[in-house]
Amino acid sequence: MKALITAGGHGTRLRPITYTLNKHLIPLANKPLLFYALEKIAETGIKEVFINVNPGEKELPKVVGNGKRWGLKIKYFEQTGGPKGLAHVVKVARPYLKNEPFVFYLGDNIVLGSIKPLVKKFLKEKYNAFITLSKVKDPERFGVPEIKRGRIIKVEEKPKRPKSNFAVTGIYIYQPIVFKILPQLKPSWRGELEISDLHSKMISKGYRIGYEEITGWWKDTGKAEDLLEGNALILENIKNNIQGKLGPRVVVEGKVQIGKGTRISGKTLIRGPVIIGNFSKIKDSYIGPYNSIGNNVEIQSTEIEHSIILNKAKINSFKRKIVDSIIGEEAVVTSAFQTLPSGHKLIIGNNSQVEL
């Protein structure tokens, strides 16, 4: 069995961060998002992985590498012809997957549990395809299954009136029979070959489609609030590991990881779960729960909670509180009270979001 992972797209809902950073490399708990997908694949025993990337993508292969760190062999291929839907990704990947079953994993999805039992069930029950489901509050954002008598009879993509409160998550398993079905698909109203249409077509032709609800949690990290929630869920499971240097007035509560070379000083309270990277400096600040702070970050006189701070950012908010934020690499956040004339000073690019 092989694995196909998506790492293309342009992350338009995560701009301006994704103007300069592939969304699959945005760190959750200080680890690139795509690494979580690769860890789940590696747990199954699969060795060969093919990653779909945008044409001309260079940064992602540089960061991810050849897969050796996970015991994998990773190869990259471009989605020719532009973004034409998930089913199109599978179609383009056929020369690499050949005539073998495969796991299809959307690289911007994260799950708590192992997918190894799902692969075992797929093989044992000899399904032609296997999809994973999760209950959600807003199923109209996803592919939604219609289930009767314990069987999926249809899957609709982003329906206005969902037939259930289940979403089809971004983890699928297929037999190579799907390559015979793909040429029969027609582009949807969005101009894409929909993965939901592939499933519905297989059902209509009598192929066996298995499914299972994911236990624990699952997140599709397509929006900023989803990234923050996914970051918080991952932080819930970290263990204490303090390698940096703490000053005499620093108080640490809960589960906290602090990297090597990091210095925490002054009157500072760190309340976990929190992860802080290497060679960062924090002084006279409150670092509240569910923060991920990267490497070489400088924070002073700041209160911050439930946020993701990328490498080399500098923050001095003069005791103003920052919450629910994503602050990009080398970004600078300062207080309006520290310079004259007083007032809010903003340099804002396309798709930025600011609350004053």
Give structural notes:
This protein has 356 residues and is α/β, with parallel strands linked by helices. It folds into 2 domains: 2-221, Spore Coat Polysaccharide Biosynthesis Protein SpsA, Chain A (Alpha-Beta Complex), CATH 3.90.550.10; 241-338, Hexapeptide repeat proteins (UDP N-Acetylglucosamine Acyltransferase, domain 1, 3 Solenoid), CATH 2.160.10. It contains 9 helices and 30 strands. A hairpin with a 2-residue loop joins strand 9 and strand 10 (151-157). The longest helix is centred in the middle third of the chain and has 12 residues, at 224-235. It starts with a strand and ends in a 22-residue tail after the last strand. The mean pLDDT is 84.
Mean pLDDT: 84
**CATH topology call of the largest domain:** Spore Coat Polysaccharide Biosynthesis Protein SpsA, Chain A
Total helical segments: 9
Which spans have pLDDT < 50 for at least 5 consecutive residues? none
Spatial extent as radius of gyration = 22 Å
Major β-sheet profile:
7 strands, mixed
* CATH architecture verdict of the largest domain: Alpha-Beta Complex
DSSP strand content? 25-35%
The spatial strand order of the largest sheet comes to 5-4-1-6-11-8-12
Molecular shape: elongated
> Structural class given helices, strands, pairing?
alpha/beta
Q: What is the CATH superfamily classification of the largest domain?
A: Spore Coat Polysaccharide Biosynthesis Protein SpsA, Chain A
**Total domains, how many?**
2
Helix content: 10-25%
Number of strands: 30
For the record, what CATH class of the largest domain applies?
Alpha Beta
